[in-house]
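Ticket #4471: structure output looks truncated?

Reporter: J.K.
Steps to reproduce: submitted the chain below (282 residues) through the standard prediction queue, then opened the result file.
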Amino acid sequence: MVLLGAHVSISGSIALSVDRARELGCTTFQIFTRNPRGWISKKLKDEEVEEFVRRRREAGYEVVVAHMPYLPNVASPEALSWRRSVKSLAEELQRCEMLGLDYLVCHIGSHMGKGIERGIAQVARAVNETISRVEAKCMILLENMAGQKNSVGSYFPQIRAILDKVDDQKRVGVCLDTCHLYAAGYDISVKEGLEKTLSEFDESVGLKALKVLHLNDSRGKLGSHLDRHEHIGRGYIGEEGFRVIVNHKSLRGLPMILETPQDEYGGYEVDLEVVRRLLHDA
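Returned output as attached by the reporter:
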């Protein structure tokens, strides 16, 4: 079974995310466990945790992914910001463990002008401090960036450098975002480019570390460093690019999560239909 899903809302109750994923016909899904736009989170109540776990079990979801809120920056060189980010990462990992989630995706972040080496060191410190604080089966996944100014982790050697500084590498993996890859300059829109990209990833990081794939087309051109997601097939990666991506032998078995726009063109149901067709037609 192909694991294909979307980032669904937890509005009203975290357990309702399971119902929303089922309504879309997802075979996996991703959530925020809390409001993603603030630093403060309400504690999870035992009854809402139990209800989420029950509905997930009844629905048969083998893999469920969480995403970190927007504000934390684990690459930050500023002491206060970095400490708040580490606290948030640790709290989020604990929440994921309570809910029985499999992966927690974390943007690698920005060094804020202090240099890539400083950023790499800060990310590794954040991960090490978090995994030393929180015992969890849930794995932290570092998500590649789009090559924006001061970003850390847009390129595979940088991700490798972070992982090399992590004390317990069994607890940390990688999530690759297709839009971010393309915006950073990896041409995954054609078969030869995808093969080259995956070969470089395997040589630098190792395909075994890749646990989740975010499926997003790109509004920006190749190497634009623009982190703007587009509907599948309506951006510069295009339908044929995604046909190759979702059917690649190294990627087809991964949980694939859509984070495409919800706009006048449509919602996740539109993009899920496109991806299912591309999988079927291969």
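Triage note (M.O.): checked the attachment and the full token line is present. The mean pLDDT is 97.
Status: closed, working as intended.
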